[in-house]
Amino acid sequence: MSKTTPFNMPISPSVSTKIGSTMTPLQDPLLNYSLSSSLLRPTSSKSMSIRENVHVMVRCRPRSAEEAAQNEEACWVLRPEEGAIDLIGPNRKMFQFDSVLSGINNEEVYSEGVHNLVRNCICLWPDCKWKDIYNGNKAQPGVIPRAVSDVFNYIREDHHGREYLLRVSYLEIYNERIRDLLGEDPNANQPEIHEDSKRGVYVKGLNETIVTTPEQVMQIIKKGEGSRKVSATEYNKRSSRSHTMFQLVIESKSKDAYPVDRAAVQVSQLNLIDLAGSEKVTKDFERQKEGGYINKSLLTLGTVISKLTSGQTTTHIPFRDSKLTRILQTALSGNARISIICTVNPTRSSKEESLSTLRFAERAKLVKTAAKMTKITEHSELQNCLKKIEELQTKMQEKTE
Question: Which part of the chain is the Kinesin motor domain (predicted)?
């Protein structure tokens, strides 16, 4: 994590959250919640806020080859023009969200649920004029590569005359233990969750890398994926055994703002979170242990969402009951813009799992957020770097003279 205090600015798909599924997001996500948010915290100066509900999108994936071969019956009807999805049958149930999609078109998913939030995490808000699903593949890039590309495209197109500094970190929560996926040995140290009045809730001790190109970011992500905990289960050949959070911190300032050490710096965070799916009973002891931790953290997330939308202001919110909800506390408490993408299975045999997913999404839609935008005036990484450059330039000039 950065030593700076990020200013509150709206952001986006910061959490590719996968819940209630036994599928890996790198393959065919079932019941995949892609929670996007920006954990932005106030620091100094006046701030403004955007009040809104969590944006929720539902995607109904196509039947798998195995499901098609077994001629599994579909049980959902999608009405995209109304943002509705209906359960077919005597116990008909309708759910309504911001948008409903079918198929595997990641471009459509990104455009509908993620694009605006990514742009908002770095544009000069509120004066900005810009109006597989996680990683995907070459033909269908997923949320991460599209979001990263979008950020760098905006910077290249920026005509406001600003200087930028971007840095990334990547962690996973495995068996309720935080592992730094960018460390030389993720098991060597254990980053801890901290909280203070300025930074809010953050993870201390993570490696951060300054990045300058989309290709560099994707290489770092590839490195992190290589350290992630995955294994074969009774349901998948390659299943996620942990939750992960990829964070991109974006700092920027006007090129005309001097002196550097007192220039106002905008800081926002784009957090992309991939949650392991809920686990069914298995005979393998190690998988049972992992599944127990996964299910507990997802249950806690569901409980937190329920209590946040209960309407009772005195209700205790159990953020501390899992590391996942503790890390997400700032975003879920409202200081962020959040987008959730839920993927459901079309078949009747998975009806209960899909219903569970949709009920979660329905509750999440009720969560209200009020992302604040605040500027910081000291101790940002961008200020530190520019100040060092100034000092080096002065020394070179003195040496030349």
Answer: 53-367
Predicted model pTM: 0.75
361: Cβ contacts below 8 Å, ≥ 6 apart: 33, 56, 58, 95, 97, 340, 342
Which amino acid belongs to residue 136? Answer: G
Diameter over CA atoms, the chain: 87
Give me 398's structure tokens: 């003195």
At residue 212 the predicted structure's pLDDT band, cuts being 50, 70 and 90, is very high
Output the six-digit token pair for 189: 């140290």
Under DSSP, is residue 338 helix (H, G, I), strand (E, B) or coil?
coil
**What CA–CA distances, in Å, run from 256 to 65, 162, 268?**
58, 8, 20
Backbone φ and ψ for 298, nearest 5 degrees, come out as: -70, -35
Binning the chain into helix, strand and coil, the percentages to the nearest 5 are 30, 25, 40
- Note whether 360 and 97 are within 8 A (CB): no
Residue 373 has pLDDT above 80, yes or no: no
Distances (CA, A) of 350 to 179, 236, 244, 347: 33, 16, 25, 6
Burial class of residue 368 (count of CB atoms within 10 Å of its CB; 0-12, 13-18, 19+): exposed
For residue 29, cis peptide bond before it (omega within 30 degrees of 0): no
Q: Which amino acid is at 124?
A: L
Beta carbons of 220 and 195 less than 8 angstroms apart: no
